[in-house]
Design a protein that fits this description.
alpha+beta
Length: 185
């Protein structure tokens, strides 16, 4: 029994030692968001402040990201309307970036689902509130793509949410929004 335990400890140590952390190239990577409302949608970008993916050989085993929420902005508007929406997204009605300038995602479990495909569970922190999220990620060479669907109501992002307010009718902004991350490392 002691020999089996020693072998298991040695294997775990060897596996951990072989883990390679690859930093995300922030300038070559892009994170896009898309939010939906009864009367349409808006989309935009958020900059990555820092991030990495962890591999054991060619297999993804972990990762973490910090998003710079002060950079959140729309890409589907211009001029005055863009300024108004960008300012509103940064306000306390949405992400309160003055008090919460970053959001964070830390992978807690990674499971291969096919060649270059993974199901990832991670702890997502927005506005100092953390909840688990499950998403898909594909890795090809030095590129990775992740698709997340996030329920903003879990993170106290309440503005025009039917989860918090009644009688909004066509003013409702849906709770779920999408994140698509195209990453280079």
């Amino acid at each position: 029994m002691k020999r089996l335990t020693l072998i298991m400890v040695a294997f775990a140590t060897f596996t951990t030692m072989n883990a390679q952390k690859k930093d995300i190239k922030k300038d070559d990577s892009q994170v896009q968001w898309k939010g939906y409302k009864v009367t349409g949608s808006h989309e935009g970008t958020i900059a990555i402040k820092s991030g990495n993916l962890v591999f054991n050989g060619e297999t993804l085993t972990g990762g973490s990201f910090v998003m710079d929420m002060t950079t959140i902005g729309s890409t589907d508007l211009s001029g005055e309307y863009k300024g108004k929406l960008d300012g509103h997204l940064k306000s306390d009605d949405f992400f309160g970036v003055e008090k919460y300038p970053t959001s964070q995602l830390v992978f807690t479990e990674v499971k291969a689902t096919g060649k270059n495909a993974y199901e990832v569970i991670g702890d997502l922190t927005i506005k100092n509130t953390t909840h688990p999220v499950t998403f898909t990620m594909s890795v090809y060479g030095s590129k990775a793509t992740a698709n997340l669907k996030i329920d903003r109501s879990k993170y106290d992002v309440r503005y025009r949410s039917s989860s918090f307010f009644d009688n909004l009718q066509d003013k409702v902004i849906y709770d779920e929004f999408d994140i698509i991350a195209d990453l280079q490392f």
